[in-house]
Amino acid sequence: MYDTANEVRRFFKLTPIRQVTRTMYQEFINDYGSCHAPSTVKKVNSYIRSAVKSAILDDYLIKDFTQGVELNSDKSRSIKVDYLNKAEIHRLIQHAEAGLTHRYTSRHMIVTAIYTGMRLAEIQALTWSDIDWIKSTITINKSWDAHTRQFKPTKTESSNRVIKVNRHLLALLRGLRTHSKSNMVFLTQFGTIPTSNAVNKTLRTLLADLGINRQNFHFHSLRHSHVALLLASGIDLYAISKRLGHSSTVITSNTYAYLIDEYKAQTDELIIAALESI
């Protein structure tokens, strides 16, 4: 957000927001997009559009100058991620679980990400009181700020959710619980929350051990792996969207379009089978 604010200041300088027109904003998007990837431009536009909508609700602005603007960008800057297939995901889970230890909880976090689809910051912020052992649920109502080392709100309001988890994951976490002296679920042997660098280093090591080489595959990619497993099992997109904490299925379908297309053939076969049974 800091870099985005600097870019806005650089382009608009001291122009009052009430004087910003759609043409001016389109010029800003064109300028910013000329050296940024599509996903970055889309994210920046969402930040600004959210601020504009708030200003309209407060009667500070009359019109939404972000409406109908074309999000131009430098597509060559898009980062391609090579994701794991179903067999590789299962191999990764088995290898991660084989070396679980309460002294280094990065492996636990990797397994948790695959089984739940939670974001890294959500996993880092997990406390024992968030786990309902009887109902087999995890309540996600906060995330972890790696800079301030404190709790912060979840990414969006819809990110606050309660998800069902499998008994196997609960058993793994219960094993971790027996050694815990804190309300935080995942801690290093030094009593700190494992960092993004730490968990990604562990993930790279596990993949290397398995002889799996995937371009730009990192911890957040495990969220995609979770979606892949659910889609492969025929889970409804609406249920997946709610589980991930998305505000709508549109976000889910846009984010995981490549996976949805991959399993479309399987879904089509289920549709035909259902029609044949009528």
Explain what this protein looks like in three dimensions.
This protein has helices at residues 2-12, 22-33, 38-57, 86-98, 106-116, 120-124, 167-177, 196-209, 221-232, 237-244, 249-255, 257-262, 264-276, and strands at 131-132, 137-140, 143-145, 150-152, 161-164. It contains 13 helices and five strands. By secondary structure, it is mainly alpha-helical. The mean pLDDT is 89. It folds into three domains: 2-77, Tyrosine recombinase, N-terminal domain (DNA polymerase, domain 1, Orthogonal Bundle), CATH 1.10.150; 86-224, hpI Integrase, Chain A (Orthogonal Bundle); 231-276, no CATH class. Strands 1-2-5 form a three-stranded antiparallel beta sheet, with no helix packed on it. The protein is globular. The relative contact order is 0.11. Helix content is 51%, strand content 6%. Helix 4 packs antiparallel against helix 5 (106-116), helix 5 (106-116) packs across helix 9 and helix 10 packs across helix 11 (249-255).
SSE inventory with pairings:
Elements: H1 2-12, H2 22-33, H3 38-57, H4 86-98, H5 106-116, H6 120-124, E1 131-132, E2 137-140, E3 143-145, E4 150-152, E5 161-164, H7 167-177, H8 196-209, H9 221-232, H10 237-244, H11 249-255, H12 257-262, H13 264-276
Helix pairs in contact: 4-5, 5-8, 5-9, 10-11
